[in-house]
Each structure stands twice: as structure tokens, then as C-alpha cells.
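Hello,

Following up on my earlier ticket. Below are the two sequence lines again, exactly as submitted.
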Amino acid sequence: MKLVTFIHQKNEERIGAIDNLGRIADLHRAYGSYLREVESNPAGEQLAAIVLGRDMVEFLKRGDEALAAARNALDHIASHDVSGGIVFAREQVHLKSPVPRPGALVSAGKNFSDHVAEMASKKGPAAPVAFLKLPGSVIGPEDDIPYPPEVKNLDYEVELAIVIGKPCVDVSQDAALDYVAGYCAFNDISARDTIHGENKNGIHLMGKSFPGFAPMGPYLVTADEIPDPQNLKLKLSVNGETRQDSNLSYMIFKIRDMIAYWSQMGLNPGDVLTTGTPRGVAAGRKPDQAPWWLKPGDVVESEVENIGRLKNRIVRE
Amino acid sequence: MKLYLGLLESSRPDQTRVFGAIDGKLLDLNPAYAACLKQSKNNHANAYELAAFAFPESIAAFLARGESSKKALDEVAAFARKNGAGDLSGPSGERVSYDAKEVRLLPPLLSPEKSFVIGFSDKARTEALPQAEIPTGYYKLPQTFVASGAPIVWPKFSEEVDADACLAIVIGKSGRRIPAERAWDHVAGVTLVIDITARDINKREGLTTNNLLGKNFPSSTCVGPAVLLPPSREEIEKMEVELSLDGTVKQKFALRDCVFTVEQIIARWSILGIKPGDWLAIGASMALAGDRLQNPAPLRIGSTIRCSAAAIGELSHQVVAAGGLR
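Thanks for your patience. The regenerated structure is below:
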């Protein structure tokens, strides 16, 4: 299943899923319709809101029950004529990040050997390395990325986002993937000059967390559809020119290792881990980084095989 | 006034209430204000609705209501002092006045977007280390917050855990890129934070310029017990914060011991935007003698740690092993 968060009107966030015709189904309304018509529940939509939760994090907290209800809803609309307001064409809605505000957003650093080399680090880390991006920096798959006036060196990093689906504390590598709800494409936007200033104190925060520095989406592809998340191609282009082209199989700490390690801090449904990025970022360009820094007007496309593609324009704030 | 966030014994976990401390009692401000509107303004129509607007379910939401909520707080405080906080009841006789022990305290600010500790800010420490040029900070995840009285659970992955006291500036008004001279307009009050660190992990993470597992594990951020508002700038700047471990004072500081001013810190971090209920905590590692790096005050299973400031109150926590006190 491909889950989405979308806005149709009145700036109201709705949770949805892609139906068998590629349309976006409003899950509350579709499941409400199922409850009304199949289970003769006249207050179906109210119950749907309780069963499914008001947003994606609440949906994920409800676990298998909400997933089963969502599948029921999709089956129902596939076999019935549904009235207006339940399904929309892609262009009728605005897609937000599937998880618009994760509880925690843990992004790996130095996790591809080719990227470690291009960033002139001596060697890869002994334990997984990550930093927190502010959940408030998350934006949707086609939203503009604001270019802050404070920043000179704006960079991109295509990654896979792993969305946690169950409370996850001290889990083993073997069991780790059982805790994944699904996957999204992700672009870890970075203000390298800001980070450089912060690094003197050993901290990454502001340079990774300006508003809009975490485009994510377009769908939350549920884990059952991605049997081998460790073997997916990653690609990023700027204005159509390929900059990053790699595969998650080159990760130093694998997805299972990351989940097991970061589960020590206690992960919750709706928390997001991102994989780190392969080579090809602007900061690693030799001999001169300047041509590759993102500029206002640039269009960045970040794609993960079988997951989806983000397309974000850089816009001066 | 000190504002607390808490639950009554009969409440569901989502039925959080904002309490105000008046005359030794904790007043459930929402029905107390309804009583105030009914009795002192003879409002028999919408007192409950107005009270629910002024005193919503959280302190952050209260702060976000701006001047109208502040005015309501002044009114209800005057009303309670006049009528006796202990004798107050709601418009239909509902109970509004509680003793502290009847309220289960929660972290007063449950889910801020920005909950940052400003690091490397100790003047004494900079004698040994180069002075930080900018007030950098790290993020303490809301999922790590605990209220006063809650146990601190020793993280299994660490051999070396310690604690730092902080005075947290609580934001009351949204803004972005706030100039230093306007910074105090955005301050609603203060609360206390104990920043618990798995120091061995933190040192290792420091080598890779990150600050995550060593600072963010369950119960690694103690917040509260109350938000004090609205203290004046002078009061905040001279407020003394003390941290004690098993009865021995380990840290004592005021904002004058900090390298950076509140204005500088707000100017810097409001670049990302700040909102009511966000907090910026200052003071981590401000030790008595600046010997913090050589000789941290280590916690042990069973240790009791307290952080206090006279005007705000005290956070008190015992360190326990995962699975209970060992």
C-alpha cells in the first residue's frame, strides 16, 4: 500500500492511500463509506476517524488494525461506485510529506564509503553516526525549499527514509525490519557553511534544520511491498543533471544495523531514520565545490527505486 | 505565577489541565476562571466557553492565546486571592482547588518544536577551553522528557552518566529572525531542565561531530516543575540555579556566568523560528569551579538528584536501573 498525507481544500490535512486506479483515496471517507454501506453504521465516518487516527503518526500508532481498515477501505471503493469527496485525481490534491511531523528524525552521516572518501574523512565510523533534524523541517514531495538568506553553501543528499511502525526499544538486527512501517524518498538538505560553524563546538543542528530542509515522500510505501530495502537504487539530479547515482547496498551500517543501534534511544511509531547519502554531493566536488551548490531556481529531483521521486524547487526566502 | 501541567487522579492521560499556584493551593484554572466570570462579571451565558478558550489543555496552548489569556490569568489570580484560593469552586460547584499531592505533575511543556540546550556556554570553562564563538545548541527530543519525581532510568548502553542543571527560557510569542533588542518581548517565563548525559557515549559521538544517543534516551531530560511567568528580565538574570547530588551541591550558577546573553541566544535560534512553548536552556556544565571536564559528578543507581531555583521550585529524581531500583 502507498499511504499519503494530502490537502484537498481548506488547508486541512487528510490521510489517504493510492487506489487500484492510481487515484488518491481519502481514507477516513473511504472507510466511513465502507462502514456505512457494508456494516450499516450510519455514523461510519466518525468511527473511521477513531479507527484510523487523525494524522499519519496516529494511524501508525494504531498498527495492524488501522492498516487492515485502510485495505478494507481500498477494496470497498474498488468494487463500488463511490460518490464525490472520496477519491481524487493526483492533480486535484497537494501532497504533504506522508509523515508531516515525525516524532524524531534521525539522519545518518558518513554511511556510504564513497561519500566518506569524498568528504575527506580518514575512515568510516566505528559505530553508526547520526544527528537529529528538527521535525519542523519536513516538507512535501513537491514543495519549494526556501533558501535562507543566512546560507551560502546549500547542498543536497538523496537518502531512503525508514518510518518506524511499532514501539522499538533495544531490538536485534535480526528483528529490526519487523519494526518498519514503510519507506519514503528523502533529501537531507544541508547548509554546509552553517554546519562548519557549528562543528567547531561538535554539534550539527541549525545547518540541517532550516524550515524545508527535509523533503520527504511522495508516498509511505508499506514494508510488505519492499522485500529487500537494502538493494534499491538512489538517484539525484539538479536541473536534470545527474549528481548522485548509487545503491543502498553500499551502506556501511545497513538498515538493520541502524534500527538496532538507534532503538537504544527508544523509537516510536512515526519516528524516521534516514540512511545517509552516497557520493556526489556538492561539498565533495573536486576541485571546486562552487558549481554544484544549490541556487534559487534550481530543481532537485531525488529518487529511490520502487519508492518514488521528490521534485523540489529552490526558492529564495 | 507558577503554572503547572498535570492530571487529576480521575483523569484520562489526555485530559491534561493547567494549574496555577495561589496561596499554597493548585487551582484548576479553567473552571476557576469560569467561576470568576460568573461571579465577578455576572456572566451566566458563556463563562465555560470563555474559560476553556483562555485556559486550554496545555501551557503551550495557553501561551499561544497571547494577551487575552494573560489578562484572564491576572483576573483569576485576583479573584482567587480575594475569595481565598482554598474556598473557590466552579460555577456549578465543581472542585477547582487542590493540594499539590493530589495532582500528578507532567513536564510543563510536553511537545515543543524547539527544545534546545545551549552548549559550551560556561565562562569558567572557557578558561580551560577556547571560547565558543556562537551559541550552538543541541536538541533534546520531547520523547525524553520526564516530570519532577519521575525516576531517571539508567541507560543500559552507558557506564558513565551525569547531570547538568539548566535554566530554560520559555518562549511566549512566535517570531523568526528576532533582533537582539526585541528578544525579551518573546520571553514568557522560565523553567528548570536537568540535562542527563551518557558521557562515555557523548565523548565518542563528539569525535564525529554529533550529539545524539548520549543526550537522548528515555528520561534524559527532566523539565519543570513549573513554568514561572512572567518574571522580569532582572529577576531571570539574577536567578540562582543549584544542582545537588545526594545532598551535596555540585553546580550553582546564574545567567551572568554564561558566555552568551539571552538576547544573543534568541537572536541566533529564532533564525529557525520560535513558538510559544519552545524552550532554550542555558547553563549545562556550569560547574562551581570550572573543573567540569576533569571531574564530572557521576550518577549511580540509587542517587538522588535535585535541581532548584527559589522562585521556580525543585526537580527531584532518583536514578534507577532499567527494570527498577537495584
